[in-house]
Write a structure and sequence with these properties.
Layout (H helix, E strand, L loop, with lengths): L17 E4 L7 E4 L1 H4 L2 H14 L7 E5 L7 H8 L3 E6 L7 E8 L2 E8 L8 E9 L3 H12 L3 E10 L5 H4 L5 E6 L1
Parallel strand pairs: 3-4, 3-7, 7-8, 8-9
Antiparallel strand pairs: 1-2, 4-6, 5-6
This protein binds 1-O-pyrophosphono-5-O-phosphono-alpha-D-ribofuranose and adenine.
Adenine (ADE) binds next to strand 2.
């Protein structure tokens, strides 16, 4: 028998994640994105797969949600030549804002976006690292629509399917690359 050939092992995006038990509270399985970003191949794979997921979609503006959405949305905005708009936790943005409150897997949050972030009618891609209950994403869509924008789709690196966040986003197009 001849020698077996083996090329470089192709890792999945999921394999770059680290899982931490009981963080930040007991009973939570925390899916840590920093180990994806902390590996150059992992980060490249994430960006490549994100770009592939939205290939061909009409997008005018890319929103990233603080803090972990900021790790991805600006890279996509740069790659696609589109403006980046931040959604931030309350009290951080300097100009007039719109706001929405959401319930999360652990806690509650109020988030804000600048009222002049994009012109009415803009097609908006909403990016975050993860969807859990979907509360943050839904609150972001409410703000986009309050400003006359149209949500083209949501794009998450990962999805906690057991929290059924997709149900809250019924009627919207939702992309996620890794499911836990
Ligand atoms: O689907 P949901 O239940 O709304 O949860 C998802 C959100 O929770 C996490 O952010 P977190 O609020 O922990 O803030 P961080 O990005 O600043 O760590 C995550 O990055 C999403 O933004
Ligand atoms: N289980 C989890 N892991 C990582 N980020 C999260 N955000 C909300 N729930 C999370």
């Amino acid at each position: 028998m001849g020698a077996e050939r083996s090329g470089p092992v192709k890792r999945t995006l999921e394999s770059y994640y680290t899982t931490i038990e009981d963080f930040p509270a007991e009973g939570i399985l925390f899916r840590d994105i920093t180990s994806v970003l902390g590996d150059a191949d992992g980060f490249k794979l994430a960006i490549d797969e994100m770009l592939k997921a939205i290939e061909g979609e009409a997008i005018d503006v890319i929103i990233g949600i603080e803090a972990r959405g900021f790790m991805f949305a600006p890279v996509l905005a740069y790659e696609l030549g589109k403006p980046f708009v931040p959604v931030r936790k309350a009290g951080k943005l300097p100009r007039e804002t719109v706001s929405a409150t959401c319930t999360l897997e652990y806690g509650e949050a109020t988030i804000e976006m600048h009222a002049d972030a994009f012109p009415p009618g803009s097609k908006v891609l909403i990016v975050d690292d993860l969807i859990a209950t979907g509360g943050t994403a839904k609150a972001t869509a409410q703000m986009v629509e309050e400003l006359g924008g149209v949500v083209s789709s949501f794009l998450f690196v990962s999805e906690l399917t057991y929290l059924n966040g997709r149900d809250l986003l019924e009627g919207y197009k939702v992309h996620s690359l890794v499911t836990f």
